[in-house]
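From the shared-data thread, chain only:
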Amino acid sequence: MEYIKAKTENAREIYNLVQNTITAIYPKYYPQEVVDFFCQLHNEKNIITDIIDGTVGILINNTQLIGTGSHKDNHITRVYIDPAFQGQGYGSYMMQILENEIALQYDTVYLDASLPASHMYENRGYITTKHEKWKVENGVFLVYEVMQKRLSTISSSI
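Structure, as tokens:
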């Protein structure tokens, strides 16, 4: 298993992974308008912009892309693990890498937690600092948690 910085040539594969994960997992938690919102938010253009900014990493198992994660400053974003590999520790592995990178400059990390991921974040020591809502379409709201974790006690081992 290898975690590397994404390159622009990885954009299409990252996009496919993110879209496939959203459409497979999010309908179990959210109405279709929210699923559509996430799909539109994580479009290929936004992924390419983040790759160019140097904020996107990818998790490779053998030659297969199984996950992606990003962070800008101390804000973790777009963490997705292929549904076929969820529940096997890959999400926690990627989070540890992102937290270690952030811990080099910051003593806290925060993220916007989707419902499918909030339990994993709680298990990693994240605490909900506030609840937010965002009106998407058709009068539907996305409700999510802003979560934070102090990094001063994080071990740098992966």
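The two ends are 12 Å apart (CA to CA).
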